Recover the amino acids of this structure.
């Protein structure tokens, strides 16, 4: 007896198989890595959190003299709800030429943004530099368990503060880790590919 014609066609779709490391499976958390970068379009300059190691339109952001520079980095809007939970790991490449007696600091805070309102999902963590130095600032920032809804974005606030006339402090914002005018990874002990690793609950 012949099969029903409806049963002669392959009617199922192969499922997408996600792979996780042993530590991710045991902790129930998976990390997404975002690079800090600057983008430009006809509307002007934006600062992005991007999962791809693309070229940034600038390599570094700087504070000169006595100044405070605040930069908000946005992810793309989420197309599925995710729960952020755990401790984020952040690496900020920097270089400063401030001398003893002058100070500079880099503050990082993780928030979410719904298009009009910013909601903190972590405290602000500040690391202070007090002399000529270069390297990578490594932050561990606990995140309050938070659902990032469809259409919402992650927003990372980076505040660069410097007190030192005639001096400069810069942080890297180039996912390609290219040499900048001040931060030079090829010869300095630093990076320009600053990044943040955000933990999310694994959905089974």
């Amino acid at each position: 007896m012949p099969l029903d014609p409806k049963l002669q066609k392959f009617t199922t779709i192969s499922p997408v198989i996600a792979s996780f490391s042993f530590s991710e499976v045991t902790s129930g958390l998976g990390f997404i890595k975002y690079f800090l970068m600057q983008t430009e379009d006809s509307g002007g300059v934006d600062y992005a959190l991007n999962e791809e190691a693309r070229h940034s339109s600038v390599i570094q952001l700087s504070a000169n003299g006595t100044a405070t520079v605040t930069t908000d980095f946005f992810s793309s809007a989420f197309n599925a709800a995710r729960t952020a939970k755990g401790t984020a790991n952040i690496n900020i490449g920097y270089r400063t030429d401030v001398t003893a007696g002058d100070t500079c600091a880099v503050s990082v805070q993780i928030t979410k943004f719904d298009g009009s309102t910013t909601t903190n999902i972590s405290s602000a963590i500040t690391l202070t530099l007090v002399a000529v130095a270069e390297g990578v600032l490594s932050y561990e920032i606990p995140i309050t368990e938070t659902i990032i809804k469809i259409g919402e974005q992650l927003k990372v606030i980076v505040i660069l503060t410097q007190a030192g006339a005639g001096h400069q402090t810069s942080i890297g914002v180039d996912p390609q880790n290219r040499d900048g005018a001040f931060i030079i990874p090829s010869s300095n002990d630093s990076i320009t590919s600053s990044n943040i690793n955000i933990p999310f609950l694994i959905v089974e």
